Structure formats: structure tokens, C-alpha cells
Amino acid sequence: MTTTPPPFGRALCAIVTPFTEAGALDLDGAQLLAAHLVAHGCDGLVLSGTTGESPTTSDAEKAALVTAVREAVGAGVPVVAGVGTSDTRHTVELALAAEKAGADGVLVVSPYYSRPPQDALEAHFREIADASGLPVMLYDIPGRTGTRIEPETMIRLAGHPRIVAVKDCSYDLLGTQKVLHRTELAYYAGCDEQILALYAVGAAGYVSTVANVVPERLRAIIDLFEAGDTPVSARLQQRATALIEAMMAAGLPGTVTAKALLNALGLPGGPVRAPLRPADRETADGLLAEYERFMAA
Description:
The chain is an alpha/beta fold.
């Protein structure tokens, strides 16, 4: 287990970005959803990540979202702003804007599409970490970016004083454990099915899309493990499998499924922005049924 307090909390939600029915940024909805998630077990929020539809929100919208959520949850809840783009200069600009808007940290994904080699990737992250005073969470999700942050690169980056954490969607347990063993980086499970597995080998917690709809249940997985009740923690992780699969591995992006469920539950979500499309009625009904089965278990 980690021996130092995690930099951004343990139970983080990769929060959706609510939009109005007309497609505009819904800041009131974002504030309501953020407050709801914190009240129900999240001790940190990650904005403008994959789930937050960062590719289709403007720079001004990203900054406004940080300001609004900061106001809603107060100073005691870490707010991490997604700032990663495929352009180093643009990413630096977004990091500085997030700092000015009140973020506590930045989430920086590997540049996508251009697939830089490891030395260029390392230089990219260092330039962003040097640009502001905010701590950095690296986002390793090669399935979307096309580029892995290799373990040896991660180990070198851990020497930077402001690179403090990783959102891990690498699906490489061996590589993750190598970095955990050799650095002080706080690892966060970015794949909901791995929350307990990574926490048990020393991760700091999780950054979860599924937490948009079941924040208390996911928080309970790590709380039970911390309390020494590993069998019950494991059963809860296992019971979550069907909902996790329905939301994250059934052919639709997690943004689409999370918003379908939030809308069905009467919580702020709204539509997705193109090129994403909303879940159809049959899919939305199936998601709600899976959610209800999980909550009744």
C-alpha cells in the first residue's frame, strides 16, 4: 500500500461534461453533478478527460468548467483538469489556463496521432510540468493515443518534482508494478475492472468513469480493502463486472453510456457532442437494468 497521502485523493471520478439540450456547456449542471459526486464518496474530480469530451470542448469552456466546479466543491476537494492535446504548445497554454482557473493539478495524455518516440514524449511531459506550478498526472492510455509511456520513460519522469501521478490504462500489470517498485508515483487505476487489483499492489486509488453513476459502491471497494475485509471488497469488485462491461466494453464510449445512465437517473448529463451519438433507447434501457441489478445486489 502507499505510505504517503495520495496527491489528489483516492476515489476520483472522471466526470462527464454536462451540456444543455441545445448543446451548450451546462455549468449549473456541472456544479450540481460535482457536488452530488463528492457527497456520495468521491474525494477528487477529473475534468475534461476522455469521459469529459475534451476533444470537443473549447479552451474557454474547459477553463469555465474548472472555475464552476471549484466553486461548487470548495477548496478541500482536489480538481484535476485535463489539458492534454497532440500539440505541446497548446497543452502548455491549457495548463496555464487551468492553473489560473483554480485547478489543483493537470491530467496530461500522451500526444495522439503523431506517435512521438519515447525521448520526444519525455520532453513533451517535462515541458508541460515546467510551465506551471501545478502537479501533473500522466495519462497512459495507448489504446486511444497509439503511444505507450514505457515504464523506463515513466521512471525517468518520476524524477521531475511536479510529475506526481499516473492514470493507468495501459493494461500492463507487470510494467505498472515495475514503476510502483522504483518510484514514488501515485498510480490511479483508469480501468474500473482493475480498481482492486491495482490498489492491492500499491496504487493510490482510481480515476473512474463508472463512478459517475455508482460513486459509493466503487469507493466501498477500496474502503473495505483498507479495513482488512478483502473478501467482501473482492466480491463487490466482482459484482460490478457486468455494469463495468456494459458501460465500458460493450461497443460504446464510456461518455455515451455514462450520460445515458445519468439522464435516466435524473442527474445532469445531457447530450453528447458530435461525432459521438447518444445511446439508443434499447441500449439505454439495458444500461439502466444493469445498474438496477447491481444496486439491488
